[in-house]
Specification:
mainly beta; 4-stranded mixed β-sheet; Immunoglobulin-like; globular; 6-stranded mixed β-sheet
Length: 132
Protein backbone atom coordinates (compact mmCIF):
# COMPACT_ATOMS: atom_id res chain seq x y z
CA UNK A 1 0.00 0.00 0.00
CA UNK A 2 2.76 2.45 0.98
CA UNK A 3 4.83 1.32 -2.01
CA UNK A 4 1.91 1.96 -4.39
CA UNK A 5 1.42 5.42 -2.88
CA UNK A 6 5.11 6.26 -3.23
CA UNK A 7 5.08 5.04 -6.84
CA UNK A 8 2.08 7.31 -7.53
CA UNK A 9 3.89 10.28 -5.98
CA UNK A 10 7.06 9.55 -7.98
CA UNK A 11 5.02 9.29 -11.19
CA UNK A 12 3.28 12.60 -10.51
CA UNK A 13 6.47 14.46 -9.60
CA UNK A 14 8.47 13.29 -12.61
CA UNK A 15 5.51 13.94 -14.93
CA UNK A 16 5.35 17.52 -13.60
CA UNK A 17 9.07 17.92 -14.19
CA UNK A 18 8.51 16.84 -17.80
CA UNK A 19 10.98 13.97 -17.55
CA UNK A 20 8.59 11.00 -17.72
CA UNK A 21 5.60 10.38 -19.95
CA UNK A 22 3.66 7.17 -19.71
CA UNK A 23 3.94 4.86 -22.73
CA UNK A 24 1.59 1.97 -21.89
CA UNK A 25 1.62 -1.56 -23.28
CA UNK A 26 -0.82 -4.30 -22.30
CA UNK A 27 0.80 -7.70 -22.86
CA UNK A 28 -0.91 -10.49 -24.74
CA UNK A 29 -0.15 -14.19 -24.38
CA UNK A 30 1.76 -15.70 -27.32
CA UNK A 31 0.97 -19.17 -28.70
CA UNK A 32 3.67 -20.64 -26.44
CA UNK A 33 1.93 -19.30 -23.31
CA UNK A 34 4.40 -16.46 -22.66
CA UNK A 35 3.64 -12.77 -22.33
CA UNK A 36 6.43 -11.37 -24.50
CA UNK A 37 7.06 -7.63 -24.57
CA UNK A 38 9.67 -5.85 -26.68
CA UNK A 39 11.20 -2.91 -24.81
CA UNK A 40 13.53 -0.27 -26.21
CA UNK A 41 16.07 1.20 -23.79
CA UNK A 42 18.36 4.11 -24.30
CA UNK A 43 19.43 7.50 -23.10
CA UNK A 44 17.43 7.53 -19.88
CA UNK A 45 14.23 5.89 -21.07
CA UNK A 46 12.38 2.61 -21.49
CA UNK A 47 9.71 2.31 -24.19
CA UNK A 48 7.16 1.17 -23.19
CA UNK A 49 7.58 2.36 -19.62
CA UNK A 50 4.22 1.14 -18.28
CA UNK A 51 3.66 -2.57 -18.85
CA UNK A 52 0.54 -4.48 -17.84
CA UNK A 53 0.85 -8.28 -17.48
CA UNK A 54 -1.28 -11.09 -16.06
CA UNK A 55 -0.45 -12.86 -12.82
CA UNK A 56 0.71 -16.48 -13.03
CA UNK A 57 1.67 -16.36 -16.71
CA UNK A 58 5.38 -16.25 -17.69
CA UNK A 59 6.66 -12.86 -18.86
CA UNK A 60 9.61 -12.32 -21.17
CA UNK A 61 10.96 -8.81 -21.63
CA UNK A 62 13.02 -8.62 -24.81
CA UNK A 63 15.09 -5.48 -24.31
CA UNK A 64 16.87 -3.80 -27.20
CA UNK A 65 19.35 -1.16 -26.12
CA UNK A 66 20.32 1.68 -28.41
CA UNK A 67 24.04 1.84 -29.14
CA UNK A 68 25.94 4.16 -26.87
CA UNK A 69 28.86 4.07 -24.53
CA UNK A 70 26.73 4.74 -21.44
CA UNK A 71 25.93 1.44 -19.68
CA UNK A 72 22.34 0.63 -18.69
CA UNK A 73 20.61 -2.15 -16.81
CA UNK A 74 17.17 -3.17 -15.60
CA UNK A 75 16.21 -3.81 -12.00
CA UNK A 76 12.89 -5.41 -11.03
CA UNK A 77 12.01 -6.16 -7.40
CA UNK A 78 8.67 -7.69 -6.48
CA UNK A 79 7.55 -10.58 -4.28
CA UNK A 80 9.19 -13.73 -5.67
CA UNK A 81 11.16 -11.83 -8.32
CA UNK A 82 14.55 -10.14 -7.95
CA UNK A 83 16.22 -9.18 -11.21
CA UNK A 84 19.28 -7.01 -11.89
CA UNK A 85 20.56 -7.45 -15.44
CA UNK A 86 23.00 -5.36 -17.49
CA UNK A 87 21.74 -4.52 -20.97
CA UNK A 88 23.93 -5.67 -23.83
CA UNK A 89 24.50 -2.93 -26.43
CA UNK A 90 25.14 -5.50 -29.17
CA UNK A 91 22.18 -7.87 -28.83
CA UNK A 92 18.79 -8.30 -27.19
CA UNK A 93 18.69 -8.91 -23.46
CA UNK A 94 15.95 -11.33 -22.40
CA UNK A 95 14.53 -11.20 -18.89
CA UNK A 96 12.06 -13.93 -17.96
CA UNK A 97 9.96 -14.34 -14.80
CA UNK A 98 6.49 -15.31 -13.66
CA UNK A 99 4.68 -12.73 -11.50
CA UNK A 100 2.71 -14.34 -8.67
CA UNK A 101 1.40 -11.21 -6.91
CA UNK A 102 -0.85 -8.48 -8.27
CA UNK A 103 0.10 -4.85 -7.87
CA UNK A 104 2.20 -2.09 -9.37
CA UNK A 105 5.97 -2.47 -9.23
CA UNK A 106 8.73 -0.21 -10.46
CA UNK A 107 11.50 -1.24 -12.82
CA UNK A 108 14.48 1.02 -13.40
CA UNK A 109 18.12 1.50 -14.33
CA UNK A 110 20.29 1.94 -11.24
CA UNK A 111 23.44 3.06 -13.08
CA UNK A 112 25.05 6.32 -11.97
CA UNK A 113 28.23 8.20 -12.84
CA UNK A 114 30.11 9.87 -10.00
CA UNK A 115 28.07 12.70 -8.48
CA UNK A 116 25.64 13.08 -11.40
CA UNK A 117 21.96 12.12 -11.04
CA UNK A 118 21.25 8.41 -11.43
CA UNK A 119 19.67 7.14 -14.63
CA UNK A 120 16.53 6.46 -12.59
CA UNK A 121 16.46 10.11 -11.47
CA UNK A 122 16.83 11.15 -15.12
CA UNK A 123 13.63 9.27 -16.03
CA UNK A 124 14.87 5.76 -16.81
CA UNK A 125 12.21 3.88 -14.89
CA UNK A 126 8.81 2.38 -15.48
CA UNK A 127 5.86 0.56 -13.96
CA UNK A 128 5.08 -3.13 -14.20
CA UNK A 129 1.42 -3.63 -13.31
CA UNK A 130 0.39 -7.22 -12.56
CA UNK A 131 -3.35 -7.94 -12.85
CA UNK A 132 -5.55 -11.02 -12.37
Amino acid sequence: MIRAFMLSVLTALTALAGEWKEIRHVATVDEDGVQRIKVKAGSYYYNPNYIVVKKGIPVELVIVRESAIVPHNIVIEMPGVSIRRDLDPEEETKVRFTPEVTGRFEFYCDKKFLFFPSHREKGMWGVLEVVD
